[in-house]
Amino acid sequence: MGDVVRAPWNGYFVTGFDACSQVLRGRNWLAPDLAWQERQDDSKQWDAIATREMTTTLARLNAPEHTCQRRSLGNLFDRSTIERLTPDVERDADRLLDELAEKLRWGEADFVSTVSEQLPISTVGGWLGIPPEDYPDILEITHNQVFAQELLPTKSQLAVSADATLRLRAYFTDLVARRRAEPRHDVLTGWIHTWDAMEPDRERADEILYRLTMFVTIASLETTATLLTSMTSLLTEPGRWAWLRKYPEHIDAAVDEVLRYDPPIHINTRIAAEDTVLAGVPIKKDSMIHVLYGAANHDPRRNPDPGAFDILRGGSHLTFGGGVHYCLGAALAKLEARTLLARMLDRFPTLHTVSQPVYAPRMVFRRITSLGVAL
φ and ψ at 271, to 5 degrees? Predict the structure, then answer.
């Protein structure tokens, strides 16, 4: 239908790789922030508690506020941080695979609940100093809160998301307060020191710290869990699994092909900062532009024969976004994926799926709720 396709509202779907890349990296395409929402004729649709709360997080901010908050985080997962986190990820992966191995002794097991949902929360939870006993609650709250980030959420979904949002605010506000009272040599304590130096208003500093901590946590969970599950579903095809065991030097390439072939997020929205033209289509200021990651990654002009899953493709993808909003946790997600994959290949030579992945009914943030595996 074209690189830019009219949506049945004040928006456009962008499908082509180059056009999507232009939107993600261009400075004249903005996140749909509060200022934009308040300019809309139907602004009431943005008044839901959960929607407004997520609009104040890093992914929905524009310069200069976005620039200030992102700089305060530093390079979250630079090479030294990844090296420091690697032993922890390896330990957690081994522990979870021990549990999987025990379940597989008796037949089939659900990979999602046993491994792929647990590794991301263990990783980010340990990094931020979240007590392990709180992990199950945070996972449940995140599953419910994400409805607010859907393209067309229903009233019932927004109600569920509102409750989850209030619980998230209470939890992470308390976490920041507890860390203030008992500082540690950890990343959250470092953020507190940074914002105390930048913002003299303690109440405002704590509000920003809550948003950053909450956002980094929930952004690290469902997307990575979906990546780990998709990776397992796609690669445990017997021929691919045996080939990767023989050529483990291609593990990173396999992870990248999973990211291209089956991205955890399907839609990201930007706003035209001014009247412009995109791929030959006139776009008016304030129009919504919906970047379709899956379509872009499957653009045959960028990745020939895109429907074929090819570990040695050496292609490219936009799954982590681009520009100032490039995914903060990209390196961490890849660390978790390649660590888990390497250990599964070594421990489970005959691992295979016994059922198709079951997806939650979502359009934007995809979630796989179950995947049966066996030996």
Answer: -125, 135
Closest CA relative to residue 148, chosen from 51, 233, 72: 51
Say how far apart CA 136 and CA 106 lie, in whole Å. 25
Return phi, psi of residue 137, to 5°: -65, -40
Classify 13 as helix, strand or coil. strand
Report the predicted TM-score, pTM, of the whole model to 2 decimal places.
0.94
Q: Report pLDDT digits (tens) over 50-76.
A: 778 888 888 888 999 989 888 888 888
Contacts of 102 (CB under 8 A, 6+ apart): none
Q: Tokens 């706003």 appear where?
A: 271
Signed CA dihedral, 206, 207, 208, 210: sign only: positive
| End-to-end Cα, the chain, rounded Å | 43
Sole residue written with tokens 């991205």: 263
Strands, DSSP E only, in the chain?
A: 4-6, 11-14, 29-30, 109-110, 267-272, 276-278, 281-283, 288-292, 352-353, 358-359, 368-370, 372-374
Q: Are 220 and 332 in contact (CB under 8 A)?
A: yes
- Indicate the SS3 state at residue 177: helix
Q: Is the dihedral of CA 179, 182, 183, 185 positive or negative?
A: negative
State pLDDT tens for residues 151-161. 777 788 888 88
**Cα distance between residue 197 and residue 107, in whole Å:** 56
* Spatial CB neighbours of 258, under 8 Å, sequence gap ≥ 6: 227, 230, 231, 234, 235, 337
Type of residue found at 79: R
- Widest pairwise Cα distance in the chain: 62
Say if residues 50 and 303 touch (Cβ distance below 8 Å): no
CA 63 – CA 30 distance, rounded (Å) = 9
- Residue 365's φ and ψ, nearest 5 degrees, are -90, 105
Which two three-digit tokens encode residue 362? 């979502």
Query: Pick from 35, 43, 34, 33: which is nearest to 10 by CA?
Result: 43
What does the DSSP 8-state code read for residue 124? Answer: H
Cα–Cα distance measured from residue 167 to residue 14, given in angstroms and rounded to the nearest whole number: 35
Banded model confidence at residue 45, pLDDT cuts 50, 70, 90: low
